[in-house]
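Q: Sequence in, structure out?
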Amino acid sequence: MRSGCIGSIVFEISLGKSDVAQELKRFENKVVVVTDGSRGIGLGIAERFAKEGAKVCVTANEKSVHDAAAHLREAGFEALSVEMDVTDKAQVIALYEEVASKLGEVNVSVQNASVIIIAKLPELTEGEWDKVMAVNIKGVFLCYQEAATRGG
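A: Exactly. Output:
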C-alpha cells in the first residue's frame, strides 16, 4: 500500500522534476521506515526520502537489505537496515524500538512489503493465500499499528 504522497514523489522522479523535490527538503531530520526497501520501488522510495533530508530505515526479510542501506550511506545519507519479517509482531515491535534508539522516533512509515503469487484460482493453495494475506494485510496492519502506538 502506498499513499498519495509517496506516489507523487515517485511520479516526480519519473517526470524529471526531482531537482525541485530535492531542493524542498520536505523531510529534513524526519525518520522514515520503508518495508521491503532493499530493491526496486522500496529502494527508490527510500532514496527519494533520503534525498529530501530524511533519516531512512530500510527493512526486508533478506540479507540484501544491508547492501541497500550501505548504498544509501555511500551516497551520503543516514540509513539503517533491519532484516525482519513484517508478519511477526515481536519483530515489528523490535524494528520500531531499534529505529527509535538509533535514528529517532518514526515520522513516516511506508508499508511497501508485499507478496504476489500468480496462479489460476483453482491452483492457488491455501498456504499461498495465507502468505499473501499475512504480508499484504497483516504486515501492513502490524507496522501501522506499532507506528501509531508510538505517535508516528
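The radius of gyration is 16 Å.
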